[in-house]
Amino acid sequence: MWPAIVLALTQALVPRALDAILKKLDKRTTPQPAPRAGRPEPHILFAISVLTVCQRHQCSITSWFRTPARNNLVDGHPASRHLTADAFDIVPDVQSESPKIVRAIQALGYYALIEPHHIHIQRIPPADRTRVA
Questions:
Q1: Rounded to a whole number, what is the distance in angstroms from the first to the last CA of the chain?
Q2: Which sign does the torsion angle of CA 52, 102, 65, 45 carry?
Q3: For 22-48, b where at least 16 C-beta lie within 10 A, e where not — what string?
Q4: Which of 59, 48, 60, 65 is nearest to 110 (CA)?
């Protein structure tokens, strides 16, 4: 008899309790609307753009977001755009394709510079316009 009563109570109470818990969790975890509803954040568009260029031109991404510790470890500039996810470093499979890749990046409105071992790309205009064009 007890098992039947426990089973009946469990079937009656557990779904209600779970519903209440899920409703509370939903309220806490519901994402806030984006500041510009319907448009992705600039960082996301930047990342998708760089990924698309890398796919079309056979490149590997070697750096994007860096923590301050990682930036120091790689001798990055203290104000590096990598610290704010506003820069990528990519390496083309075929080095001679670098100028074509830079043109593709610039056509998307971003800034690129061919460095000795990679192409540096950033979303925000560089402070030193002679460094990244």
A1: 81
A2: negative
A3: eeeeeeeeeeeeeeeeeeeeeeeebbe
A4: 48
CATH topology of domain 42-122: Muramoyl-pentapeptide Carboxypeptidase; domain 2 (3.30.1380)
The predicted model scores a pTM of: 0.66
Q: CB-based contacts of 97: which residues, under 8 Å, 6+ apart?
A: 57, 58
Tens-level pLDDT at each residue, the chain (133 residues): 545 554 454 555 555 555 555 565 555 555 555 555 667 788 888 999 999 999 999 999 999 999 999 999 999 999 999 999 999 999 999 999 999 999 999 999 999 999 999 999 999 888 765 554 4
